[in-house]
Amino acid sequence: MDVTLFDRRVTVTVDTIEITGLDVAFKVEKTLKPLPNTCELSIWNLTQEHQSQLEQLGQVSNGKDHKSKKLSASTNKQATTGIGCKIEAGYKDATSLIWLGDLRTVDTVRDGADWVTHLTSGDGEKAWQNAKLHVSYGPKTPLETALRAMVRALGVGEGNLSKIVSKLKQAGSAIFPHGTVISGPVSRELQAFAQSADLEVSIQDGAIQFVDRGKALGGTALLLSEDTGLLDSPTVDNEGVLSAKMLLIPDVRCGGLVTMDAARVKGTYRIEQAVWSGDTSSTDWYVEIKGKRY
Question: Which one of 101, 127, 153 terminates a domain?
């Protein structure tokens, strides 16, 4: 095992506030389902200034702060755009973005001699819950036009939208021959489109992600063995679902592939669920995945 995998690093950024060098614990849960991914984060012994700033941002994110205060411009965006909460974690020379979402709540409590600030957030949550679009398109409108309009209304990144549009063009299904009307919640319209095109849609780290139903994202499969970060013994249940635990290493993505090279489990699986657990004051620094044979 590369010794650098034992030199753990984590950076938390909330809005414009960057936090390093403090004890941090987090649990990030992601799936391929349309419902927003979630994150629970705790930070120990922030400065009083940062405690106050984060608590104020928490009030703004919940619409409870109506006073004019000196916050960054991101707090004044429309209801579909939340206050950013980002976690970059891993090891020296091997960190990666493991979370980017909208701040939900902030709460600071006393724990013995320590002050602990607890934060929760959801990935593209405000956009998924609140974004609406009312527009009609005439005959032979490109599908790309409507999709990009929906993603703009969400206010999230375009992710792999261009790849999906190219695929649909190649399949000859890239226009609305009779036009279409989009009216109401964008999340509902996107799910309806995904179902009709046999796609799975979700928001991953602040960007839209489409995956062919039951298929995988492009890219090289992550090789997982005892030499590359595999922990404990992976299992496969009666329904063929893999459960595996690994060190907190880069390139773990819902929809991506992992090739197992363990004593009792071999083969390639599509990652459908992943949970990142980290605690700088304990040995917790790992990812647990579930996936189906691919």
Answer: 127
